[in-house]
Specification:
The protein has ten helices and twelve strands. It has helices at about 5-30, 50-65, 80-90, 105-115, 145-155, 175-190, 225-240, 255-260, 275-290, 315-320, and strands spanning about 35-40, 65-70, 95-100, 120-125, 140, 165-170, 195-200, 220-225, 245-250, 265-270, 300, 300-305. The strands form two sheets. The protein has a six-stranded parallel beta sheet, with helices on both faces. The chain is elongated and about 80 Å long.
């Protein structure tokens, strides 16, 4: 081999070592004096429904030695507002972001652009209506399975004899992948049972309530597919505004448990919001500590709560996370 070629190869090897050393030093710097910072953006961040989720974030932050900042947000967020918040967090030192996507067109594309700059983890739902088309990692419960479980519990209460019964479905938005899959699972399980779904309405958080269950035609059952819809339906039931309709729903707050305990909600399917917080932050931490680690989807479980099982040890632990 000629001397010139040997020199070139040697220089390339030295440069490769220097680049690797720079990467290691950069990561060590983050793990040293400058604590890694992860910002979290969720709609209506002070709402009590996020208590278990925040508690999970807190516990993971302590375990991972990470600083977590939860952005202060109002009841509604647009794609542009969420984009501005993420930009602000990055400019203020965020090394990664955990985001609850807004239910609007363009959210997936906007978030994918940020993913090229820093790690991004979605929570609760993908940003795309079609989960198979989403390119962003997400930590969530199996929403289709939760919808199926809700229908299963209703059918169990009536020994599958619901021929001629009627039901209405209410959700905060029909635009999120999570809600769409919950409703699909619910509807699929009720196929060929003889029950009739009379109506399906939505109400976005922070907007005037125009589609409350009490304003719809009378039904035997109301199925609420998210926490805000469930608590609203529970409140209507407590005020005797549902004409005797029995409420089944998906929720994860102390208010939801309250309406279950008072008998205004018959059955509650609870996504493990504590682990959504814990697992999302742990996965983000892994990507920040291991340079070549790509953020992965994380799946968490759900639990069925009933009034008669509220005081089991396992269920009390779930309720405890909601009150933190």
């Amino acid at each position: 081999m000629k001397t010139g070629k040997k020199v070139v190869i040697l220089l390339e090897a030295v440069l490769a070592v220097l680049v690797l050393a720079a990467v290691v030093l950069m990561l060590q710097g983050k793990n040293g004096q400058d604590m890694v910072k992860v910002s979290v953006i969720i709609q209506n961040s002070d709402d009590t429904q996020w208590a278990a989720f925040k508690y999970g974030l807190k516990m993971a932050a302590e375990d991972q030695g990470i600083e977590v900042y939860i952005a202060n947000t109002g009841e509604t967020l647009t794609v542009e507002e969420e984009k501005s918040l993420i930009e602000w967090e990055i400019s203020n030192g965020a090394d990664a972001v955990i985001v609850r996507p807004v239910p609007e067109e363009g959210a997936e594309e906007m978030l994918k652009k940020f993913e090229k700059r820093i790690p991004v983890m979605l929570v609760g739902s993908t940003a795309s209506k079609d989960r198979s088309l989403s390119a962003l990692p997400v930590t969530e419960s199996d929403n289709y399975a939760m919808g199926t479980a809700l229908a299963e519990e209703l059918l169990k209460d009536y020994n599958n004899s619901v021929e001629g019964k009627t039901i209405g479905i209410v959700s905060e938005t029909g635009e999120l992948e999570s809600v769409m899959n919950r409703e699909k699972g619910f509807r699929d399980r009720l196929l060929n049972t003889g029950i009739q779904i009379l109506w399906s309405v939505t109400n976005r958080s922070g907007e005037p309530k125009e589609n409350l269950p009490a304003d719809q035609p009378e039904v035997n059952f109301v199925a609420a597919l998210d926490n805000n819809s469930l608590t609203a339906a529970g409140e209507e039931a407590a005020a005797n505004n549902l004409h005797g309709a029995i409420v089944y729903g998906i929720g994860h707050s102390t208010e939801a448990v309250y309406y279950l305990d008072t008998g205004n909600v018959k059955c509650l399917v609870v996504p493990d919001e504590f682990n959504i917080g814990y697992q999302s932050l742990t996965e983000i931490s892994e990507s920040l500590r291991r340079y070549f680690h790509k953020v992965q989807d994380k799946a968490v479980s759900h639990t069925v709560l009933r009034r008669e099982t509220l005081f089991t040890k396992e269920n009390q632990e779930i309720i405890f996370t909601m009150s933190q």
